[in-house]
Write a structure and sequence with these properties.
There is one protein chain. The protein has 17 helices and 22 strands. It has 462 residues and is of the alpha/beta class. The strands form 5 sheets. Strands 9-10-8-11-12-13 form a 6-stranded parallel β-sheet. A 6-stranded mixed β-sheet has the order 17-18-22-19-20-21, sandwiched between helices. The structure holds adenosine-5'-triphosphate and magnesium ion (MG). Residues 112-116, 137, 139, 163, 283, 286-287, 319-320, 334, 336-337, 341-342, 345-346 line the site of adenosine-5'-triphosphate.
Length: 462
């Protein structure tokens, strides 16, 4: 964070200084967790589920923070008192970012692949200037401003993942960090329960494009009709990635190697390069194209982008983590998240890995959350797809995943087996009996199901 006086902070957030010297300067980390404060920094007291941040203000004052953002005065502690600390946090971040005119903000949103693509972009731009892009998601109204506040006058690139649960969410986040480059990856099904329809999701994600600054660039997926249509929502330059002929950044000759890693020829701005990703699954190809289009818009050359893609690795946990047990069983842990699109991508990667090794494939699939009315149909569809892709064994885990098993059973003409079990323990028991040397097992579900514990237990058994 750049140095800012308490007086300027109070003005920026519309708060009142209580017990604080207006000339005292904040010149350190802005933290919402009392364990992360530093002397000279700032503490934001947020109401939490278990604890109220306000209870920690005396302790962080003792630890040397210059001031705390609070909703009420706290005895003996310098405070900027505001009606709502979360809103004030956003205002502070907006004020700080506005002092950094040379900062290139690369904002991205989409239903799937935000964190994967954010990590790619961060790795591509980092060699060309100091970059702020924390590992993990940090994409909401708290994580996003906290990330933005890490930027200072030396920062060249800020890579900001932005998530949306409602129309207006992305507008709110873009007000804090107006995107120089605004990228929309895709409009899928996630949070459809909250939004009601895919068109409403597109409305919300497209706010990213409306907020691209004058002279900036909108980066759009040419293959997703709802995203491609967002071109009409900006007057700035538009770059496109995908298979469609109008895309400026494309991939041809996509192949998956025996580890499920894609290689392809990257075509960008009339030049071509051989690329082999260190990431797993075909779904990383559109992410790589999106990242390329974004970094070209941020000033990198196609050659620099291609070199970066060859080097970039996975930074965030549980996303297609492939581990081989001592007994030769391979476990692919993708229990971080699941939706119909990512299920498809993961099943395809599983089959590619299995085929390359001549191995038997298992898909151990739990429920996908947040699907609203379409839940049964979507789970059924995943089961049918597993059959069509010829996954050898399917295990649906948990009541909401039962339609996966039913769909697979109804798809017919499949010489393989599907099972339904109610709990992860039962799945583990079944796998314990049946797994053979060389088998490849994909474990995937929405995070709330906790199937990562099953993946961990499976790895311990080997
Ligand atoms: P969140 O909303 O939880 O922050 P995210 O958009 O950041 O998710 P990632 O964490 O990158 O997305 O990936 C989530 C899941 O989506 C992973 O299981 C991954 O396999 C899958 N995935 C990643 N990229 C794509 C893509 N382009 N298309 C479909 N699925 C994808
Ligand atoms: Mg994410």
């Amino acid at each position: 964070m750049i140095p800012v006086s308490c007086g300027d902070i109070a003005t920026a957030v519309g708060g009142e200084l209580v017990g604080a010297d207006p000339a005292a300067v904040v010149d350190g980390v802005v933290a919402k967790d009392s364990r992360e404060v530093v002397p000279g920094g700032l503490f934001v007291a947020l109401p939490g589920e278990r604890a109220d941040g306000h209870d920690f203000v005396p302790a962080v004052t003792e630890a040397g923070v210059t001031v705390s953002l609070t909703t009420r005065p706290i005895d003996g502690c310098p405070c900027v008192v505001v009606p709502d600390t979360q809103v004030a946090l956003g205002e502070l971040a907006r004020y700080v970012v506005a002092q950094l005119p040379d900062l290139t903000v690369i904002g991205l949103t989409g239903s799937q692949g935000k964190t994967s693509t954010k990590d790619l972009i961060a790795q591509l731009v980092a060699p060309y200037g100091p970059t702020v892009a924390p590992v993990g998601s940090f994409n909401n109204e708290i994580g996003h401003p906290l990330t933005a506040l890490q930027a200072d006058r030396t920062t060249r690139f800020l890579v900001a993942e932005m998530g949306a649960r409602h129309v207006g969410d992305i507008n709110y986040l873009c007000r804090i960090t107006p995107p120089t480059v605004g990228l929309v990856l895709n409009v899928g099904h996630s949070h459809i329960g909250e939004f009601g329809s895919q068109d409403a999701i597109a409305q919300a994600k497209g706010e990213m494009i409306e907020n691209v600054v004058a002279g900036g660039t909108a980066v759009l997926n040419a293959d997703d009709p709802r995203v491609a249509a967002m071109a009409s929502r900006t007057e700035q330059t538009v770059r496109r990635f995908g298979e469609a002929p109008e895309a400026d950044v494309r991939a041809t000759d996509v192949k998956l190697d025996e580890n499920g890693r894609p290689s392809f020829t990257l075509h960008a701005d009339g030049q071509s390069f051989a690329v082999r990703l260190q990431l797993i699954g075909e779904h990383q190809v559109p992410n790589a194209l999106a990242a390329t289009a974004a970094v070209l818009a941020a000033g990198l050359t196609p050659e620099q982008a291609a070199a970066g893609l060859n080097e970039a690795t996975t930074m965030s946990k549980w996303r297609m983590e492939v581990t081989e047990r001592a007994d030769g069983v391979t476990v692919i842990n993708d229990a971080y998240n699941a939706n119909p699109d990512s299920m498809r991508a993961a099943l395809k990667a599983l089959v590619a890995i299995g085929r390359a090794r001549g191995a038997r494939t298992w898909a151990v699939l739990g429920p996908m959350g947040e699907l609203g009315d379409t839940s049964t149909e979507e789970h059924d569809g995943v089961g049918r797809l597993a059959v069509r892709l010829d996954v050898n064994r399917l295990v649906a885990v948990g009541e909401d995943a039962r339609p996966i098993h039913l769909g697979a059973s109804l798809e017919g003409s499949w010489g393989n087996e599907s099972a339904y079990v109610a709990t992860a323990d039962e799945a583990l028991e079944l796998l314990g009996k049946e797994l053979q040397r060389g088998d490849v097992v994909l474990v995937k579900a929405s995070r709330y199901v906790g199937l990562d514990r099953l993946a961990t237990a499976l790895l311990q058994e080997g």
